[in-house]
Specification:
Mean pLDDT: 84
Strand content: 15-25%
Helix content: 40-55%
Shape: globular
Oligomer: single chain
Number of strands: 3
Distance between the termini: 40 Å
Structural class: alpha+beta
Largest sheet: 3 strands, antiparallel
Length: about 90
């Protein structure tokens, strides 16, 4: 049996959360610790697979109680552009 690489594992975990709850909210350092990876691997998955072009909005709050929230969007072109603008103003 072929082992899943870390990026695919992170992606699958986040995708499962989205499918089960409609939203995925994580603390990056905690997830990295649970998976035995570095937090930058989670950043890589977020920036490469959970993009507005793929239909996702990623919001983050930094600091001690910071979090990352991923939301799936299905929108018309105008709504999609509005969501991107909102996500850019939050970042």
């Amino acid at each position: 049996m072929r082992l899943m690489n870390m990026s695919n594992m992170i992606y699958r975990i986040l995708l499962d959360m989205l499918e089960a709850e409609g939203i995925a909210e994580i603390q990056r350092n905690e997830l990295a610790e649970q998976l035995g990876c570095v937090p930058s691997q989670i950043n890589y998955v977020l920036s490469s697979r959970f993009t507005p072009e793929h239909g996702y909005i990623v919001e983050s709050r930094r600091g001690g109680k910071g979090y990352i929230k991923i939301t799936r969007v299905e929108a018309t072109d105008n709504e999609f552009i509005r969501c991107i603008m909102i996500s850019l103003s939050v970042a």
